[in-house]
Design goal:
This protein is mainly alpha-helical and 663 residues long. It has 21 helices and eight strands. The strands form three sheets. Strands 2-3-1-8 form a four-stranded antiparallel sheet, sandwiched between helices. Strands 4-5 form a two-stranded antiparallel sheet. The chain has a two-stranded antiparallel sheet with strand order 6-7. The two termini are 49 Å apart.
């Protein structure tokens, strides 16, 4: 679908039922007494706000499904002053009567899924009491007042009438994605990213684009590692591992650079101006100078003259206070790792060595991984508390700070035992066995927990709902009771939340964390076990489909979040490459020290030279590959030129009108 010529055609369009409000189910006796007055008022207000309402009764609750004509969403976007990309490349405040100027989505929709959901929430929570007096509402035997200028839905949430507001799956699109994506095994790594973006939003689509590209690129070191492990190169065998090491580091550097290119291309294709999004995030922390008139230059200069020193001092004070708070919080996390987690990790490594049989070692590793999950979750919740006292600029900056802190806990948990074996025993074969056990057990446990816990939660809630219904007198005896409404099935499914809590991060935190820990393991111990890349590639092929099934079948439809890139995770991947250079150089020293005495001759000097060369490659190769394709750069330059032309013409017209007025 192209641009809309006017709002009339779009007014006739309406979304499907995309949002549901969950309220308690009234008994027949209560309904007969008129106890639903509160719900009837809410339905009437929702309809007056321009939404289409349909009520569905389930076993345990009632579900109020909401749809909206595009005109209602457009007017809500105008009232919110939502910024949208125009065809000249500028993000401007949305105006419903100028709809043709704004870029449409890849699927032809005017608004993206995140924008539609934001408009729905604005319409739902924007229902306030404008009558000039309080209104008495009733639900069951509970009576309460709806005060002036108070949000109706907020009031009903406080009274326990509204249990939840959540997005609904679109059955047609969901089944299409199941068929073409989650259950499509013809191409192991192909994904309909544009369809995923249209259905789930930018953040989830970016994750799957990264996962798919990472999996495709893993086949290169997997094939190289397989050849390194199985082929005998004769007299040149001593050069194989250093060559493989250099190849792996170069591969990782180029992978991240090409990912930046792909990410910028995706954003351009989806009509997302990332640079402007960054500006908006930082601008929220500033106090812009108000202008009485676009041509009131003297007013602006006067404001700048009087406020510049004070504004500068305020910004500097906020900047350094934020830095000091982050240093304090990071120090607390580091002390927690050293004083609490490090002894626990070393105790596990010691018990592992004292255990004689391989079967018991697998059991010990499984018990350790389960126990450490609870420890790291506690650390994550402590991190959530700490960052509330930081002076972060915007939600994304706060989320990045949380990611860094929690990853520090998981980094220690995942690798300290491996470092212990590598440094203390200096036995590559022993380290290789530990790597296999860690990789196999951790992947099995993670997949088991990731896929079984949501199903068990859903089954438990479903059993409770059915069992409670059977005990009610109004249920006919002998008649089977089961869930029949799609809305109730989705309501009983778990939400897509992070293990550390849903305050700042959704379930993608755990998915990205899993990828980062895997990347660190295969990179930092590449020389000890080159075949580890094969295991990672096979695991990620199944991970793509498993994560897709999890989102489409096992969980509620996630609330869309605004995120144009993978954020702090890119810096973590860069950090892991540097760590890989250091750890693999140490492993090579251990490999070529046949007698186990850590002699510095003859290869240590060569390995140190190689380490510095690889660091140079890491930072040098990053500049060989541009971070965005040429067509994206060309489009941006053209957009800037068009915007300058439009602004210049508008400014000239304003000057001409002002001169005429003065004359």
């Amino acid at each position: 679908m192209g641009a809309r010529g006017d709002g009339g055609e779009a007014l006739e369009e309406a979304t499907g039922f995309e949002v549901t409000i969950v309220v308690p189910k009234l008994s027949r006796a209560a309904a007969a007494e008129g106890g639903e007055d509160c719900l009837a008022r809410m339905v009437r207000e929702l309809e007056d706000a321009g939404m289409l309402v349909e009520r569905v009764r389930g076993l345990s609750a009632e579900f109020i499904k909401l749809s909206a004509p595009m005109g209602s969403l457009g007017r809500a976007a105008s009232e919110m002053k939502m910024k949208k990309l125009t065809y000249i490349g500028m993000e401007l405040q949305f105006e419903w009567d100028q709809v043709a100027a704004f870029v449409t989505q890849p699927d032809g929709q005017l608004f993206s899924w995140r924008e539609r959901f934001t408009c729905f929430r604005y319409l739902i929570y924007g229902i306030v009491n404008k009558t000039g007096s309080k209104i008495s509402l009733k639900f069951h035997d509970n009576e309460f007042d709806w005060k002036q200028n108070e949000s109706l839905i907020r009031r009903l949430e406080d009274e326990g009438v509204v249990k939840l507001v959540f997005p609904l799956h679109d059955e047609v699109k969901r089944k299409q994605l199941l068929r073409n994506w989650a259950l499509n095994w013809h191409d192991f790594t192909w994904q309909p990213i544009d369809e995923v973006y249209s259905y789930f939003g930018t953040k989830i689509a970016t994750y799957f684009a990264f996962l798919g590209m990472y999996t495709r690129w893993l086949f290169f070191p997997a094939v190289s590692g397989l050849a390194t492990q199985l082929i005998d190169f004769g007299s040149m065998q001593w050069l194989v591992l250093p060559a493989f090491f250099i190849f792996v580091i170069s591969w990782a550097v180029f992978f991240l650079q090409f990912w930046k290119r792909k990410n910028s291309a995706l954003l351009a294709r989806w009509g997302i101006n990332y640079s402007f999004a960054e500006y908006k995030a930082s601008a929220n922390e500033l106090d812009p100078l108000p202008l009485r008139h676009p041509l009131s230059v003297e007013c602006v200069e006067e404001k700048k003259f009087h406020n510049a020193p004070a504004e500068k001092r305020r910004l500097q004070r906020n900047e350094w206070s934020g830095v000091l708070l982050r240093i304090r919080n990071n120090a607390i996390i580091v002390l927690g790792i050293i004083c609490l987690q490090l002894p626990f990790e070393l105790a596990y490594a010691h018990l592992y060595e004292k255990t004689e049989t391989e079967a018991l070692r697998y059991v010990l590793t499984a018990a350790y991984l389960v126990a450490i999950q609870y420890y790291t979750r506690i650390g994550g919740k402590v991190s959530v508390i700490l960052i509330k006292y930081e002076n972060n600029q915007g939600e994304q900056s706060t989320a990045d700070s949380l990611i860094y802190k929690v990853f520090g806990l998981y980094f220690m948990q995942s690798y300290i035992g491996l470092f212990y074996h590598a440094s203390l025993y200096r036995d590559i074969l022993r380290l290789r066995r530990v790597l296999i056990q860690r990789l196999v057990v951790s992947q099995v446990l993670e997949n088991l927990i990731e896929n079984s816990i949501p199903y068990l939660k859903y089954s438990y809630k479903k059993y409770n709902a059915v069992h409670k219904k059977r005990e009610e007198k109004e249920s006919p005896s002998g008649k089977s009771v089961r869930l029949t409404t799609r809305e109730e099935k989705e309501y009983l499914k778990p939400s897509y939340t992070a293990s550390i809590g849903e305050e700042l991060e959704d379930g993608l935190f755990d998915d990205f964390l899993e990828l980062a820990l895997q990347f660190g393991m295969i990179m930092m111990f590449a020389c000890a076990f080159p075949l580890i890349f094969c295991f990672a590639a096979l695991n990620n092929v199944t991970e793509i489909r498993a994560d897709a099934l999890k989102l489409l079948v096992m969980l509620k439809r996630p609330v869309p979040r605004a995120a144009a890139t993978i954020g702090a995770w890119l810096n973590i991947f860069q950090f892991l490459i540097i760590m890989a250079i250091c750890t693999n150089c140490l492993l090579l020293v251990c490999l070529y020290d046949v007698e186990g005495k850590w002699r510095i001759e003859p290869g240590l000097v060569a390995i140190l030279i190689m380490e510095h060369a690889l660091l140079l490659i890491k930072f040098g190769f990053s500049h060989f590959v541009p971070e965005e394709p040429a067509w994206v750069t060309a489009n941006r330059v053209r957009y800037v030129a068009q915007a300058q032309t439009v602004c210049s013409k508008q400014l000239l017209r304003s000057i001409t009108k002002q001169d005429t007025k003065w004359e």
